[in-house]
Amino acid sequence: MTDLVGCIAPEKLEEYRNVFVYLENRNGKISRGALEMLGKGKEISVKLNEKVVGIAIGQDLKAVADEAASFGCDLILGAELSDFNGFSSVAYTNIISDFIFEQKPNIFLISGSREGRDLVSRIAVKCKTGVAADCIELDGDPTNRLLIAWRPSFGDKTIDQILCRKHRPQMITSRPGSYKLPEKVEKPDCETRIKKVKVGKLVAKHKILEFKPKTRLDLTSSKIIVSGGLGIGGPKGFEPIRKLAKELEGEVGASRPVVDLGWIPYEHQVGQTGQTVRPKLYIAAGISGKIQHIVGMKASETIIAINTDPDAPIVKYSDYFINADAGKAVAKLADEIRKYKKAHLVEADSEQTA
Amino acid sequence: MAIKIIVMMKQVPDAEEIFIDPVKFTLNRAQARGIINPSDENALECALKIKDQTGAEITVLSMGPPAAESAIIECMGRGADRGVLVTDRVFAAADTYATSLTLAASVKNLGEFDLIIAGESTTDSGTGHVGPGVAEFLGIDQATYCTSLHIENDALVAERDLEDGTEVVSIGLPALATVLISSNIPRRAKLRLKIDALRKGIEKWDHDTLKLPPEWVGIKGSPTVVGALKIPEERKRAAKRITVDQLGELVKELGGMGLIKTEEEEA
Ligand SMILES: Cc1cc2nc3c(=O)[nH]c(=O)nc-3n(C[C@H](O)[C@H](O)[C@H](O)COP(=O)(O)OP(=O)(O)OC[C@H]3O[C@@H](n4cnc5c(N)ncnc54)[C@H](O)[C@@H]3O)c2cc1C
Ligand SMILES: Cc1cc2nc3c(=O)[nH]c(=O)nc-3n(C[C@H](O)[C@H](O)[C@H](O)COP(=O)(O)OP(=O)(O)OC[C@H]3O[C@@H](n4cnc5c(N)ncnc54)[C@H](O)[C@@H]3O)c2cc1C
């Protein structure tokens, strides 16, 4: 419990040093989002001449510590739970806040995964600081030792800089997939401090009754994605899109409103609050191209947009623009691909017989 | 005794009607039509289902401008018993810390409660940080990303949708839950209930009611600040126009780029 008081700033900001990164992990492996944060944390810590410190919680943290060290972590602070197996935001918030009170970090990066987003704001409230959510660009300002974070603004074109000038640590989240995975360092040089922690009292009434695992679609490493937006007209509009994706051996993506409307599950959502993708080919059918969608797919190598509106913002983000009805153009594309494949088969056959 | 549920509801601008003040970089919300944040409709529906089954007293709590009253009345028309609007100029431009503090203080002011239900995130700024922030201020456990909720004995049993599966968790009351958008079908308001709500009216509280000093709330009480605004740098793209009749040519280009796998290559 935190007293109901305002966000009182610390007096001596210069006491706060180093970049914390939350090492979300499962079965001894650090999550993709946390590795991206570690990469960013390393970059910023070098720029600010600070250390990057990994914070890990789990049952057995040896493998996690080794992996973090290989990606350039300077120090790992771990808490091994001796009386609880699982995730509890109350317990984790307490443990992490204790590390913050003890170490006084300047910056704290947390992946915007479901676990990260469940935790981040409890930690911020407990430690009296702010969080910039779902950032898409991060940088360090060495003069003021500030974290410069950017997130999409409300309109359809701009991004906002969010700063936390007077409170520490400066906290942010970024959705998994927002950044490239970091490279391993040549000579890991990392100190590991792991302590045993009991959380029994905090989780006495927190009981995980059941867990049904399922594999969720991961678009972050897909080579080809065909996405549909409101312009496809309804859930049925995904039928030709699925066919085209199949023809291209790619995956199906979507804008947020069609997910919100239940036309397709959330695991297909591309954008600021969905997945950030960088395929070789991205086809956007009936998607207008608002900034929150664009930030999730603009790193694609080739972009094809299909839209009835020649002035839709998506046009200027596309390499090819098809000014037509999504359903028709998508079906025709699939046909043409089938034809192309056939022609190639014939060619290959004739070469063989020749 | 019926359990006490608080539903946190934010009125958001209808996504298509936003206007940004180019000088002050602030949202001009006055221009956009207000609607109930979509996942808050699902949160309210969860509360109403509990009320249908076991009885419950539901209070809708919202922080926002006076115009948010209509959204609260709409919630009462669907079956909520009481509506509180926390409204004060000093609450304006709050970040998630100041918003969570103000809402937590409002919950305290409501007195005893068993369960708080919030939406998972809003469709305007959509941080998803307000629910957990309130839970931390109140020192209660939470279940986030829920698709269904029910009460068993003195516990909340919730189904949570996570990246790698579905978790069913039981947590002690009082607790806070956040509900995912589209996790149920919100009922419509009943005319009779809406008329009752209009007659009954809502309560309006300000920072004095909550005994919150102005420097703790709104923009003054917010640790995060919006700095500059920029148009992200983009790679220039050609936007080559292709008609539907030219799709064959486009496919050839894609084939040339190695984007179409032919059996031949697979073999
Ligand atoms: C905090 C926040 C987070 C967000 N996160 C995301 C996110 O992660 N992902 C995301 O996508 N959005 C996100 N959004 C929503 C985003 O702002 C837009 O509302 C959304 O991307 C629009 O989806 P759309 O392009 O499908 O719909 P619209 O903007 O309605 O566009 C539909 C398009 O279809 C075209 N069209 C209509 N009929 C046809 C037809 N027959 N054939 C072809 N084209 C047609 C129209 O010309 C239009 O361009 C977020 C918003 C906020 C505020
Ligand atoms: C473009 C933009 C970016 C922003 N970025 C940040 C940022 O990075 N960090 C930051 O701290 N603030 C940020 N803010 C400020 C943030 O919008 C406010 O703090 C806002 O009051 C609550 O945040 P939310 O809409 O994200 O709520 P969420 O956390 O997404 O809301 C979740 C749930 O909490 C409840 N809830 C939220 N607000 C209210 C309310 N007023 N009354 C009743 N219930 C409510 C609802 O049940 C809602 O479904 C940003 C604002 C804008 C416009």
Descriptive account of the structure:
The complex is a heterodimer of chains A (354) and B (267). By secondary structure, chain A is an alpha/beta fold. Chain A folds into 2 domains: 13-197, Rossmann fold (3-Layer(aba) Sandwich); 219-353, Rossmann fold (3-Layer(aba) Sandwich), CATH 3.40.50.1220. Chain A has helices spanning 32-48, 62-70, 89-103, 114-127, 238-247, 256-260, 291-294, 326-353; strands spanning 19-22, 25-26, 29-30, 52-58, 75-81, 107-111, 131-132, 137-141, 146-152, 159-163, 170-174, 191-197, 207-213, 224-228, 251-254, 281-285, 302-306, 320-322. In chain A, α3 (89-103) packs across α4 (114-127). The N and C termini of chain A lie far apart (80 Å). Chain B has one domain (4-216): HUPs (Rossmann fold), CATH 3.40.50. Helix content of chain B is 28%, strand content 28%. Chain B has a 9-stranded mixed beta sheet with strand order 9-8-7-10-6-1-4-5-11, with helices on both faces. A two-stranded antiparallel ribbon of chain B has the order 2-3. In chain B, α3 (96-110) crosses α4 (130-138). The relative contact order of chain B is 0.17. The model of chain B is unreliable at 17-27 (pLDDT under 50). Chains A and B meet through α3, α4, β7, β10 and β13 of A and α3, α4, β7, β8 and β9 of B. The structure holds flavin-adenine dinucleotide (FAD) (2 copies). One flavin-adenine dinucleotide sits between chains B (8-10, 27, 37, 39-40, 43, 61-64, 94-96, 99, 103, 118-119, 121-122, 124-131, 224) and A (130-133, 151, 153-154, 160, 162).
